[in-house]
Specification:
This protein is an all-alpha fold. Helices cover 68% and strands 0% of the residues. The chain is globular. About 5% of the residues have low confidence.
């Protein structure tokens, strides 16, 4: 999916503001979320694509470098359905919103703490495990930018362990390992 397709998915004009993108995302997420469509086997893949498109559009709107490359979801068995209580679902989505804020503000240590606590509470939830992988990846990338190579390797490995079935994450971590190799060869 390219940038133009992302704008079409959200029914937005190119150059839309972050506020417009967030509003359009919220509307679509309420309709497309797998919990709202439990009988639809493809709902999870569509929701993953929606989230990836959202991240790409936000990165463009905020002027950040594009970190995520959007690919069609891999054909895989549907993840097991985890039934959450209303309280757990509310916790999950309020935590997700807080994670988004922390990542945008680059408060990565707080994001790691929040996602770890959420995984302790909802360890079987595939969305939460995916969020943990993404947060670990960003923290590993942050550590690598600060030349803390050993710690970066630890968090990049943790990212893959948290979300082992995410091909994009594997690709991104592989890219970071190339950076590490390059840094080590220059020493």
């Amino acid at each position: 999916m390219n940038l133009e397709q992302c704008y079409q998915l959200f029914n937005l004009q190119p150059g839309a503001s972050a506020t417009q993108i967030k509003g359009a995302y919220r509307k679509l997420a309420r309709v497309m979320h797998p919990d709202v469509n439990p009988e639809d086997a493809s709902a999870h893949n569509r929701f993953v694509t929606l989230n990836q498109a959202y991240e790409l559009l936000l990165s463009v709107a905020d002027g950040r470098p594009q970190v995520v490359t959007i690919k069609p979801p891999a054909k895989a068995a549907a993840p097991p359905v985890v039934t959450l209580s209303k309280q757990e679902a509310d916790l999950k989505w309020s935590s997700y919103q807080k994670l988004q804020e922390l990542l945008q503000q680059r408060e990565l240590i707080k994001a790691v703490s929040l996602v770890d606590a959420l995984v302790n509470r909802l360890s079987q939830d595939t969305d939460v495990r995916q969020w943990q992988g993404i947060v670990y990846y960003f923290f590993g990338q942050h550590l690598l930018d600060r030349c803390q190579v050993d710690k970066a390797k630890i968090y990049l490995k943790k990212a893959l362990k948290a979300d082992p079935h995410n091909p994009q994450l594997w690709e991104q971590v592989h890219t970071e390992y190339h950076k590490i190799e390059k840094m080590m060869s220059q020493l």
